[in-house]
Amino acid sequence: MKAIVETGIKKIEIQELPMPEIQADEVLMKIRANGLCTNDIRDYLGDTVYSFPRVGGHEFSGEIVAVGAAVNPKHFDVGDHVVKYIIPACGECDYCKTGRENLCVEVANSSTFQNPNGLSGFFGMAQYIAVKSRDLYKYPKEVPFTHSAFTEPLACVVNSVERANILYGQDVLVIGGGVMGLMHVMLAKLQGARIILSEPNEERRKLAEQLGAAITFDPMAEDAVALVKQLTQGRGADVVFNTTANPIIAKQAMDFTAAGGQTFIFSSLHPNNPVPTDLGAVHSHEKVITGTVSPTIRTFYRSVQLIAKGLVDITLLLDKTFDYTQAVEAFEYAMRPETFKTIITFD
Predict the structure, then answer these.
(1) Which residues pair with 172 in a beta bridge?
(2) pTM over 0.90
(3) pLDDT reading at 47 higher than 90
(4) Which domains does the chain have, with CATH numbers?
(5) Per residue, what are the HEC states of 221-271?
(6) CB-based contacts of 224, cutoff 8 Å, min separation 6
(7) What is the CA radius of gyration of the chain?
(8) CB 295 within 8 A of CB 152
(9) Is the predicted pLDDT of residue 233 greater than 90, yes or no?
């Protein structure tokens, strides 16, 4: 089979790899679409701690082409359109046992990230992958593979928004109008909140308004914190989701948050510089500052339901598709700051 192999910094090769051999409890999944994530771009630029050579790609969808003898045909069979829960959780640690697989203590040690004796990676950028049937989720065949490939990133946002326990009528501020920020807009809107978006790009602000934001503003054009307080009768936002990587903006996210409110650091900070925090305000105003990362099994399932049932339409977030033979062009395109989701397809 063919695979997109990252062999070093900005070095990509289309290589021939052995076809995966499935075990009795596995299926052979043919990859049809894979979305490029910010972390994929960091891998490409060498701004990563993961080992090379690497077959990345964790936002993938495809179809079953073979099933193992122990796979229940009532659940999965040849021809089914599926996605895979991608976190290599051990299933045994305290976090896995309590439904927080996204925090599994063994994940960082897995060959997904470090494999000195071979290929690391999630393998969403290969033509085929062997998948345990327990990790599979089925999609209706009318859902395009390019859409079901959004399952993993949307599941990250489901995890983020559900943890906020948003109440009807609350003011929710989303910082950043990229793909992840706009999915926060859509899901928080479904929760019955008034959505405010902070984003300097005018086109992204307009798109956010299409997707449910009630108010959008350019944080570079005025005193953003003062504006948010003005919009919220002096309180600030009840919930703030920071989807940007800039540590300076992480500090601003806390300033946007009302007394008794919640600040969610959704994006990893890059660079991961210390951020000044007014712990006096955290104490006196009962502010909550927390992070969210990756999907759990439960939120991954919820993401499938949202896309499969048309409750969330991610069509406007799909930017451009590239054939796997154009992998370098796809990565270079995805690096542009103005783009949305770039998808690599496999026929």
Answers:
(1) 195, 239
(2) yes
(3) no
(4) 2-86+122-150+314-345 (3.90.180.10), 157-291 (3.40.50.720)
(5) CCCHHHHHHHHCCCCCEEEEEECCCCHHHHHHHHHHEEEEEEEEECCCCCC
(6) 198, 217, 252, 256
(7) 20
(8) yes
(9) yes
Phi-psi region of 234 (alpha: psi -120 to 50; beta: other; left: phi over 0): left
Which residue's entry shows tokens 């990345």?
Answer: 56
Instruction: Tabulate helix, strand, coil % of the chain (nearest 5).
Output: 30, 25, 40
Q: For residues 325 and 38, what is the distance between their CA atoms, to the nearest angstrom? A: 20
Amino acid at 284: S
Residue whose structure tokens are 């439904």? 99
pLDDT tens profile 259-288: 999 999 999 988 888 999 999 999 999 999
262, 215, 258, 271: which is closest to 242 by C-alpha?
A: 262
**pLDDT recorded at residue 315:** 97
- Collapsing DSSP to helix, strand or coil, 171 comes out as strand
Residue 59 is inside which H or E element, if any?
strand 59-67
Provide CB contacts within 8 A for 174, sequence distance 6+: 181, 184, 185, 188, 195, 196, 197, 198, 208, 213, 240, 241, 243
Q: How far apart are CA 215 and CA 261, in angstroms?
A: 19
Laid out side by side, the sheet with 171-175 consists of 215-217, 194-198, 171-175, 237-242, 257-265, 288-291
